[in-house]
Amino acid sequence: MTETKSKAAKIREFLFLNLGILLMAVGIYFFKAPNGFATGGVSGIAVILANVFPTFGQAFYMLIINMLLLGVGVIFLGKECTVLTFYCSITLSLENMLFELLLPLSAPLTAQPLLELVYAVLLTGIGSAIIFKCHASSGGTDIIALILKKHTDMNVGTALLCADLLIAATTFINFNGGEYISFAPTTGLFSLIGLFAKVFVVDDIIDSINLCKAFTIITTKPEEIDKYITEKMHRGATVYDARGAFTGDGRTVIMTVCRRSEAIKLRKTIKDIDPHAFMIITKTSEILGKGFRDNLN
Q1: Do residue 100 and residue 136 come from a single domain?
Q2: Could you give the 3-state DSSP secondary structure of residue 176?
Q3: pTM of the predicted model as reported, rounded to 2 decimal places
Q4: Separation between Cα atoms, residue 256 and residue 254, nearest integer Å
Q5: Are 223 and 258 contained in the same domain?
Q6: Is the domain of 64 the same as that of 159?
Q7: Residue 282 backbone phi and psi in degrees, to 5
Q8: Residue at a domain's end among 163, 188, 209
């Protein structure tokens, strides 16, 4: 049974990983690249290089840079993370190449750069967060962000900001075929706004994905509730005796945490077992221990 669940979890994570890659590819090809937005990452470098050296497309530059930075990942992040990152970076580059072949773009989709920036930030930000949640990265400067996160106290968003700020700043210069054209404040400002927005989106999405519920239950029927938590939900719980301040009557307090998807059913079950139970339910995205996160990385 455990092995079956493990296989199901791996399949689910693999599908989740590919969803993140697809969202990033759509955001990069249809919204970031046509507008010249470089909100960081290898895609941002590729957009700049494609403008400076238009002989090759941005998908080609993404592939080459990712290959170079993967070597750094092997040294600092370990084999498992690097293998997943290798898969993500190759798949992302290939999906962009496929879009270039099947749906070539010669101009932005709309005449509304702010609208396209919103979609570029949301799609790439959500995609990045999903990939980070799967303990991988899309390659490039995301590898640098993971290294910073692993070896410092930075969260993912701050690490991304440090890794990508210089890339976004280069979009203030407009190049065409390697020739300096002009100062481009509009594209540069859009790119900087996009970078800062992406930082918040990535952190918020990761917190949302990690969101769990912490229950503090005060009840007179602790045995039935404890049995449901441990035997049906397969979660641990902490149980201790307490006394009501006004009545002086004895009560039992049960503390437990569960995934957001389990919280609604637990709350209903508790009310079915003990209609007079008092519950305090709080949101948390930082739970360390068995069944949740085993470390700070």
Answers
A1: yes
A2: strand
A3: 0.66
A4: 7
A5: yes
A6: yes
A7: -125, 155
A8: 209
Domain of residue 29 covers 2-209
How many Cα atoms within 13 Å fall on the side-chain side of residue 204?
10
Nearest to 54 by CA among 227, 182, 178: 178
Burial of 198 (0-12, 13-18, 19+ CB in 10 A): buried
Strands (E) located in the chain: 173-176, 179-183, 212-219, 238-243, 250-259, 278-284
Nearest Cα to 120, choosing from 186, 44, 184, 57?
44
Kindly state whether residues 38 and 7 are assigned to the same domain.
Answer: yes
What is the total count of domains within the chain? 2
Q: Strand order in 212-219's β-sheet?
A: 238-243, 250-259, 212-219, 278-284
| Same-domain pairing of 48 and 120 | yes
49: tokens are: 């290089």
Convert the pLDDT of each residue in 38-95 to its tens digit: 666 666 677 777 777 777 777 777 778 777 777 777 777 666 677 888 888 889 888 9
In 103-155, where does DSSP find H-type helix? 113-133, 141-151
Domain boundary pick from 189, 209, 229:
209
Residue 231 lies in a domain: yes
Strand partners, 111: none
Extract the tokens encoding 48. Answer: 């700049």
Burial (0-12, 13-18, 19+ Cβ within 10 Å), 214: middle
